[in-house]
Design goal:
36% of the residues lie in helices and 12% in strands. By secondary structure, the chain is of the alpha/beta class. The protein is globular.
Length: 145
């Protein structure tokens, strides 16, 4: 059996955090990330609401944007990869119902996502002059064209 590691290309990734200081500073936050190979957005409530604006600014600066929230690709990010927000909200509603029915929150199990979704925005890829292998596109849960 051949050792796959011998055939794998070495990839070096440098992570440089860029602090998000609020809605009014979004332009300067994206400008601070300009010059990097890509922008990775780790989703939180504030950033979800700003997804369209973030995607527009990133595209203006020719900064490919990848998010841990698949729905970011709908707003114009290049790739979204993570658990669906919709699935999270459905699970949260189930937990709320159990608590309202009298179950102690401390008795509820901690759950991990069971489905991870890959969304690829081909319009953004084209605007940035990027291409994806057909095998990756075939594996995507959603391809936005």
């Amino acid at each position: 059996m051949e050792d796959v590691r011998n055939n794998a290309a070495t990839l070096s990734v440098m992570v440089r955090p860029v602090e998000f200081k609020g809605f009014d500073a979004l332009d300067t936050t994206i400008e601070a990330a300009t010059g990097n190979d890509a922008l990775l957005m780790i989703g939180d409530a504030a950033l979800i609401d700003l997804r369209e604006r973030i995607a527009t600014l990133a595209l203006r600066h020719r900064l490919p944007t990848v998010s841990s929230i698949p729905e970011f690709a709908d707003a114009g990010a290049l790739i979204g990869y993570g658990p669906s927000r919709r699935a999270f909200y459905k699970r949260a509603a189930t937990y709320v119902k159990k608590v309202l029915d009298g179950v102690k929150p401390s008795n509820l199990p901690v759950e991990q996502p069971t489905q991870i979704e890959l969304s690829i925005n081909m319009l953004t890829a084209k605007a940035l002059g990027l291409t994806f292998p057909d095998t990756l596109i075939a594996r995507a849960d959603r391809v936005i064209e």
